[in-house]
Amino acid sequence: MNKFRKALLVLICLSAILLSINLPIHARSPHLADPILLAQQPASANSVYERAKAELPEEFYMLYRVVERLARANGLDTLPWRVNVAHEYSVNAFATDYNLLAFYTGLLDQMHGDPNALAFVAAHEMGHHIRNHIAVGEAEQQRILGQFRQEAIDQVAAEQEDLRGDLEKIRVGEWATAGGGTLIDSITSRTGGLGSLLANVLGGVFQGNRERCVRPAAERIDEINAQKAAEVKQQWMELSHRQEFEADESGYLYTARAGFDTQGATTAMEVLNRAVGSRMAGSTHPAIPDRIAKLTAIKSQYPVQPLVAEGKAKLAASAQPLTYAASLDQSSLRINSKTGSSGSFEDELPR
Question: Which of 15, 241, 297, 310 sits at a 20 to 30 Å CA gap from 24?
Fold first, then answer.
């Protein structure tokens, strides 16, 4: 169980993004790939937004304006942010990679014209980054689950030392157990019978009394493995739910400080609930009504006006808009940090 507990520690960094994790980014805007278009930023603070509106595709302009204000109003402008538009009609957004906020076109379409709802979604994803909700991908999850099966084999071998040799032979067919069922049944179904190498291995194992001893051991391995897998999946779900509530709290605080109408949080939840609400509940995300109830409690705990005052003070102290450029990955828009927005590289060099 010590190895099991150590494996669970890895999951402290499990990310729960707004709707899903580790999704591919499909967007690649020709506008962002044009070095002439974004090579120079205007010197005048008043013209930054006007030039952005003229240069950027509409969806990137909306995201730039929202994320730029959220960053300055909350003191989140010490490092650059990146925004990406994934061209798939899904009501979805996610946080991944290095300060990357990705939005599917379906979500942008459904929230078109409502900067308050869009700001909450963006702030929620920013919260995942700030709170270090780092994703553990599907491959890593499968590796951990595979490790549990190996531990189950080791445990049964330790319990039944006289069968250790036979259980060691069964390890050869471990790859065949991923679909569930006992080791014996799984190997047989995957190979269409006992063939070639496995026939040689198993032929000397499952004979007479020996088979009657090994079969219960194999079933015991499956039982232990299933118990461990169920426990860790429950841990993943609980951690994911907790992180979603934390990111919702960040979303409310960040949008309030930036001067957005916090009703946008409720609007965003309603959009999500119509799109995928019933499918989300009980999996990686809490049910939408539970999230709305938590947000209501958060609003009571943190009145809007003091937050607005905090944000205004930060915006006044950082009045210069953050500039933007095409990220070097050529698929996302980089919103520069306050240092990167303050002047040319030469201006920042020590004298």
Answer: 241
pLDDT digits (tens, 9 = 90+) for 104-140: 999 999 999 999 999 999 999 999 999 988 666 566 6
**Type of residue at 19:** L
Given a contact cutoff of 8 angstroms between Cβ atoms, the answer to whether 123 and 250 are in contact is yes
According to the per-residue pLDDT averaged within each range, which of 154-158, 177-181, 251-255 is highest?
Answer: 251-255
Question: Is CATH 2.160.20.10 correct for 2-137+252-348?
Answer: no
Percent of the chain exceeding pLDDT 90 equals 43
CA angle 14, 260, 132 (to 5 degrees): 15
What DSSP string runs through 128-151?
HHHTT-----HHHHHHHHHHHHHH
Each domain of the chain, given as residue ranges in start order, spans 2-137+252-348, 153-234
Closest CA to 11 of 252, 249, 233: 233
Stated pTM of the model: 0.70
Return phi, psi of residue 130, to 5°: -65, -35
CA–CA distance, 324 with 64 (Å, rounded to integer) = 8
What is the pLDDT averaged over residues 147-160?
75
Contacts of 92 (CB under 8 A, 6+ apart): 18, 19, 20, 23, 86, 103, 104, 106, 107
Residues 337, 320 contacting (CB under 8 angstroms):
no
Report yes or no: 126 and 110 within 8 Å, Cβ to Cβ. no
Only one residue has tokens 């920013």, namely 126
d(CA 348, CA 179): 58
Inter-residue contact 269 to 291 (CB < 8 Å): yes
